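Moderator note: this is an archived Q&A kept for reference. The question asked for a predicted structure of one protein chain; the sequence and the answer are reproduced below.
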Amino acid sequence: MTFYSPGQIFLHIGPISIRYYGLMYLLAFILASFVIKKLSLRYKFDPDLLINCALVCFLSGIFGARLYFVLLSWPYFASHLTEIFAVWQGGLSIHGGLLGALLIGIWYVKKKNLPIMRTADILATVVPLGQAIGRWGNFFNCELFGLPVDASFLFKQYIPPNLRPPQFASCEFFHPTFFYESVWDLVLFLGLYFLILPKFNRIPGVTLFVYMIGYSLGRILIEPIRLDSIMFGATKIPLVASWIFLLLSLVAMAIVYLRDKKSANSK
């Protein structure tokens, strides 16, 4: 299977260019909202409140993702200030997005008197669906690809000469890491939706931390072959962040689970 991007632009309307990147994020939010509504009815939540919460988290997540990316890439943006807000060109860091969505999401949930962990469980179930769709925006931008592969490799992405890293200028095909992560996120969503949330709904927080663990594992597996990671010297920052998220989530889930078990034994 070979992936060929048709380009970044979906449609021109006069002077306005509608890009695939933005469309993928719009589609991701629409489908995620549909699933959130179903889950809110199933678990006795106000659908409007949860969808509004999802919108707040979505917007703050985009802001956090861009801010995180810009700060970690400041040597470049210091000389290209006009590109700081050009999110349609890519450059959104998921880890920054998760932090932004978490902080503003907690504020919104408290303001609306929603149960924090149960709300987080429902939203975390749907997040990987949005991520699975959003990664296709990277495909249209010809970004988030990995090391070169042979033309005979099972999955490969063609990268135009002007977008290839200089050291691989003669290579045509690369690992479609956007696709690997999209598939991983989709499987994670299905597991959370059909297995984890129904089974552990009575223990608030478990679904949230399973998502964090699952997503972090995916990044840890895929990140080593990516070519566009944000670097600090020879260290891939997203890889370090993924390990931190993984370890913290494992500890948090163990605490939540043991507290529930202790509470059950004391009854």
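Archived answer notes: The helical segments are 20-42, 47-72, 74-77, 94-111, 116-140, 177-200, 206-222, 237-265.
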